[in-house]
Design goal:
The protein is mainly beta and 241 residues long. It has helices at residues 8-14, 45-48, 52-63, and strands at residues 19-21, 28-33, 38-43, 71-76, 79-86, 89-97, 113-123, 129-140, 145-156, 164-176, 181-194, 197-212, 215-224, 229-238. The chain folds into 2 domains: 8-101, no CATH class; 113-238, Beta Barrel (Porin), CATH 2.40.160.20. A hairpin with a 2-residue loop joins strand 5 (79-86) and strand 6 (89-97).
Length: 241
């Protein structure tokens, strides 16, 4: 399926219709044609029962009386399809749904294991530090949540030769916003070890996920004891489904 530039679809849909027409096809309840050859079709219930080739045939039949039509938009209750029309042949170019624009916790895909690596920059608290964090985890409950174990290594920026090793557990709720981006909120419990000192440190975490093929780019903030704030930026790789 060919996909058009994202900026093109809103421009096409904003064009005023030239004329509205009744349509004899049971798959559609109405048709409008714009000055630039955009045919807008309102889908009826029978259209929703059609499969791919049958939908293409229905669009081609509906577009036949409009030889100037270069595009056809099929709309039904917030869902839509964009078809290109060339020499009486239709090809599906894009689809959309209002459901994809809601702030929901619907899973993107099936559950999977993942690995993550990121740089970490911490400020506030007793000492600022820089370092890295690695996580290994899995999604839970149809990708509504995830849980991971983590290993971090940081050095204090004001103390030469210093080093802090942290083992942690993280649990997050996932909020996919579109197919390409989402938010997450969660809690983290770390065990901090440095030069004979060890302690547990709870914190709250939240961030943004940019979904990419096979993984995601992630940025998050954690807020812990004594006002310590950490910024993490890194990449997650999906290991399995």
């Amino acid at each position: 399926m060919r996909r058009l530039p994202a900026a093109l679809l809103p421009l096409l849909l904003c064009l005023p219709p030239l004329a509205a027409h009744e349509i004899s096809s049971p798959a559609f309840s109405g048709a409008e044609i714009s000055p630039v050859g955009l045919l807008r079709l309102t889908a009826a219930e029978p259209y929703l029962d059609l499969k791919g080739p049958e939908r293409r045939a229905a669009v081609e039949t509906a577009a036949a009386p409009y030889p100037a039509a270069g595009f056809a938009v099929v709309e039904h209750k917030g869902n839509g399809e964009l078809w290109t029309i060339s020499q009486s042949s239709a090809a599906l170019a894009d689809t959309w749904s209002r459901k994809e624009l809601r702030f929901t916790r619907r899973a993107r895909t099936a559950g999977r294991w993942f690995g993550h690596i990121s740089g970490q920059f911490a400020r506030g608290g007793d000492y600022p530090s820089n370092g890295w964090t690695a996580r290994l985890g899995t999604t839970l409950y149809d990708n509504r949540y995830d849980a991971a174990v983590s290993l971090s290594r940081n050095t204090f920026t004001d103390i030469d030769g210093s080093g802090v090793t942290t083992f942690g557990l993280t649990g997050r709720a996932l909020y996919p916003y579109t197919r390409h981006a989402g938010l997450n909120l969660g809690l983290q419990l770390d065990r901090v070890s440095a030069s004979g000192y060890s302690d547990f440190s709870p914190s709250a975490t939240g961030g943004v996920n940019i979904y990419l093929p096979g993984g995601s780019f992630d940025m998050s903030l954690t807020y812990g004891a004594k006002g310590r704030v950490s910024l993490l930026a890194g990449y997650t790789v999906y290991i399995g489904r």
